[in-house]
């Protein structure tokens, strides 16, 4: 039986890790053991941050919608409530896109949300 020689596979394995570690600082891009550790950690970071990115974008959309709806005289909370009562189902990504690129369309949505809202019951009552 032929003897198993592992040099080719070992070199390939090391080369792949060092290629993935390209751009890291210092020993992390040059020494195999440090590079392997950093590459593994980087994969963990990227997995975690792919999920975190979704929340980051949602927060950004909400800020944009809030700013645009306040310019039209309605808070974000009341705007979303009004859209739900009006039966308008548009997600936050599209609303943010409209707020930035098509302010007139967004203003029309705000007006339809305003008309669907009941009178503000939490407002202080005027003295009669």
Automatic annotation (TrEMBL):
Protein purpose: Binds directly to 23S ribosomal RNA and is necessary for the in vitro assembly process of the 50S ribosomal subunit. It is not involved in the protein synthesizing functions of that subunit.
Claim: rRNA-binding is one of the keywords in the record: yes
GO biological process entries: ribosomal large subunit assembly; translation
SUPFAM superfamilies associated with the record: Ribosomal protein L20 (SSF74731)
Family: Belongs to the bacterial ribosomal protein bL20 family.
Organism name: Herbiconiux ginsengi
Any one annotated GO CC term: ribosome
Keyword Signal annotated: no
Superkingdom to which the source organism belongs: Bacteria
One Pfam family of this chain: Ribosomal_L20
Keyword annotations: Ribonucleoprotein, Ribosomal protein, RNA-binding, rRNA-binding
Protein known as: Large ribosomal subunit protein bL20
GO molecular function list: rRNA binding; structural constituent of ribosome
């Amino acid at each position: 039986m032929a003897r198993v020689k592992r040099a080719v596979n070992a070199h390939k394995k090391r080369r792949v890790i060092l290629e993935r570690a390209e751009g890291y600082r210092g020993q992390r891009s040059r020494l195999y053991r440090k590079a392997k550790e950093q590459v593994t950690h980087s994969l963990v970071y990227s997995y975690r941050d792919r999920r975190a990115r979704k929340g980051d974008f949602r927060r950004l959309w909400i800020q944009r919608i809030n700013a645009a709806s306040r310019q039209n005289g309605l808070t974000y909370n009341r705007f979303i409530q009004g859209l739900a009562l009006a039966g308008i189902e548009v997600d936050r990504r599209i609303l943010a896109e409209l707020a930035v690129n098509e302010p007139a369309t967004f203003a029309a949505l705000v007006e339809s949300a305003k008309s669907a809202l009941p009178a503000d019951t939490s407002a202080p009552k005027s003295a009669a």
